[in-house]
Write a structure and sequence with these properties.
The chain starts with a strand and ends in an 8-residue tail after the last helix. The chain has a domain of about 190 residues: FAD/NAD(P)-binding domain (3-Layer(bba) Sandwich), CATH 3.50.50.60. The strands form 6 sheets. Strands 10-3-2-14-20 form a 5-stranded parallel β-sheet. Helix 1 runs parallel beside helix 10, helix 1 runs parallel beside helix 16 and helix 6 crosses helix 9. A hairpin with a 4-residue loop joins strand 12 and strand 13. The protein is globular, with a radius of gyration of 23 Å. By secondary structure, it is of the alpha/beta class. Bound molecules: flavin-adenine dinucleotide (FAD). The site of flavin-adenine dinucleotide has 38 residues, from helix 1, strand 15 and helix 15.
Length: about 550
């Protein structure tokens, strides 16, 4: 006979763990089903080199920022080992010579650093920070809101739409204009409006292209910058960027412990093949081995193309919804290069292998906006970037658990390779790409190449085939304007519900995803609880 639970969560990535923890905490008999040998999904810490297990890398995602304190506190994550080290500054050494360091919390040093290139830009920077902070005040609370179903004439949807409009009635013409600019402009054009020096604009553009199948000159990249910057300038709702102790896998480990402490069961190496639908309702799942597990509530946290096009029959779904998911854009061209280093890089502009402040934050390879745009245009035309862009960090400068004393881990988040590299491994070309990236750092930090003792290169194909990130997109789907808020993942279904009753969507392809935010998992739980109140679907476990 099939086993039975109150709730099933498909996927043990961080969103699945959050959803499962909340469900179990509410008293529901909950099982989390994970296909891999471990939980965490894209939030993972691994030892990729069997002969050097003392090195631990955060193989995919690498920095935290958007996990709301509510989730952290309610799931008692700190008690379960969650600890974050605040990151140091943004640093860029230029191949032409010199460097720039941008400090998040030191206006005086920021001024001096920028004034080397432009006094005007040094004066503009506090105004830019204040401008962004003002927009973050508007946008960051929205991350925790359920998008209304705009256009629907159902009374409850109309109420939600009106409530949202009412809440924002105080916004003035300028703020609305600024938000419009943010949503529609390229990060390059936006920065041109504020700054004159290319050296200042380059590091500021980085957040506009992270994980994005678009160069900094593409409209929409200004919003991507804001999505990633909310953590930097947050108003207390969300934290600043930081390195979790033990890498991103330690975040998932804390969530796993939390879920278990509330009574959730976690099954590893357990791949879900299908969601069982009867009479338009989800009633359970079929595993790859043919076993069935039944529950009146199912939360999926998988990529929408897997969740809706593979694990459900199209005949159970509205035609428009299937079309929307088929058209879902899910490209990135991201390559993650993880290094073990024998010593910290000594930059020509700031020499010395000893630990210095510029080693402790983002160590960028983004020397100009044109450099980044060229890397993207090459990938768009079908070839990997000759000179790759990279947002790199050295978390072992803070976290001593990742590498033996004196050695370091460097996590390089790099772009771009062609989008269709998700269809084939291209491992040899990826290694050549990683060589070129290392060479770019060697130019500004001679001897860097020699300091690399181990290397791990993860491209889009591995991201799709090992981690379920279809197309290699790091967020389960692009953060382009047509895939945000009420459109994420499809119009009419942005409220963490799906066309199937009892099936909820807690994946990064919903509003506030992607990123390691936990918000989609939490919202899927909230939706299930709200429906339970109406229908009694989520029965309480008898203690
Ligand atoms: C290279 C890279 C760098 C990134 N950097 C950052 C960063 O620095 N900061 C940040 O905040 N975000 C970052 N992200 C994004 C972030 O990691 C993801 O958005 C987030 O981790 C996704 O979490 P999730 O739980 O929604 O999905 P996932 O992590 O994708 O979890 C889904 C889980 O479902 C499992 N699964 C798949 N198929 C099945 C099946 N059939 N049955 C059962 N289980 C299944 C998978 O194994 C996986 O564990 C990065 C992502 C990547 C790839």
């Amino acid at each position: 006979m099939a086993e039975s639970y109150d709730a099933i969560v498909i996927g043990g990535g961080h969103n699945g763990l959050v959803s499962g923890a909340y469900l179990a905490r509410s008293g529901a008999k909950t099982v989390i089903l994970e296909s891999r040998y471990k939980t965490g999904g894209a939030a993972t810490t691994d030892s990729p080199w069997p002969d050097a297990p003392e090195f631990k890398v955060t193989r995919l995602s690498y920095v935290m920022s958007l996990l709301p304190p509510t989730i952290m506190n309610e799931l008692q994550l700190e008690r379960h080992g969650y600890k974050v080290h605040a990151m140091g500054p943004y640093y860029q050494a230029f191949p032409e010579g010199g460097s720039i360091t941008l400090f998040a919390d030191d206006a005086k040093r920021n001024y001096d650093s920028i004034a080397k290139f432009s006094k005007k830009d040094a004066e503009a920077m506090p105004k830019w920070d204040a401008w962004l902070g003002g927009l973050a005040d508007v946008l960051s609370p929205l991350l925790l809101k359920v998008p209304p179903n705009i256009g629907s004439r159902k009374p409850s949807d109309l109420k939600d739409t009106l409530q949202l409009a009412w809440k924002h009635r105080g916004l003035d013409v300028r703020t609305i204009a600024d938000i419009t600019r943010l949503f529609t402009m390229s990060i390059s054009d936006l920065l041109d409006d504020w700054f004159e020096s290319w050296q200042v604009k380059a590091p500021l553009a980085v957040n506009g292209v992270i994980g994005t199948w678009a160069g900094p000159m593409e409209p929409g990249t200004a919003y991507v910058m804001a999505h990633h910057s909310i953590g930097d300038v947050g108003d207390g709702h969300l934290g600043s960027w930081g390195f979790p102790e033990g890498g991103m896998g330690a975040v998932a480990a804390a969530m796993e412990k939390s879920a278990k402490s509330f009574g959730a069961e976690i099954r590893l190496n357990t791949k879900v093949a299908k969601v069982i639908v009867k009479g338009g309702k989800a009633v359970g799942v079929t595993l790859e081995n043919g076993d069935e597990i039944m529950a009146p509530v199912v939360v999926t946290t998988l990529h929408p193309k897997t969740a809706f096009l593979e694990q459900l029959d199209a005949s159970d779904l509205p035609v428009d919804f299937v079309t929307d998911i088929e058209r879902w854009k899910t490209r990135s061209g991201v390559v993650k290069v993880n290094l073990a280093l024998s010593e910290l890089p000594s930059f020509t502009a700031n020499p010395g292998h000893e630990l210095q402040e510029h080693h402790t934050g983002s160590v960028e390879m983004a020397p100009s906006i044109e450099y980044m745009e060229t890397a993207f245009q090459e990938a768009r035309s079908g070839k990997p970037a000759t000179r790759p862009f990279s947002d790199s960090v050295i978390p072992s400068t803070w976290d001593k658990t990742l590498a033996p004393e004196g050695t370091h881990i460097m996590s390089m988040f790099s772009q771009w390779v062609p989008e269709d590299w998700a269809n084939e491994s291209h491992q040899e070309e990826l290694e050549a790409y990683a060589d070129r990236l290392v060479d770019c750092y060697d130019e500004v930090a001679p001897g860097f190449k020699k300091s690399v003792i181990h290397r791990d290169v993860v491209g889009p194909w591995e991201m799709e085939n090992e981690y379920g990130l279809i197309g290699g997109n790091i967020f389960h789907g692009e953060l382009s304007l047509e895939q945000l808020f009420t459109m994420r993942p499809a119009p009419g279904y942005a409220d963490y519900r799906t066309p199937i009753k009892g099936l909820y969507n807690g994946s990064s392809a919903t509003h506030a995803g992607g990123g390691v935010t936990g918000i989609p998992g939490w919202q899927a739980y909230n939706a299930a609880m709200a429906d339970k109140k109406k229908s009694g679907r989520l029965s309480r476990k008898k203690s």
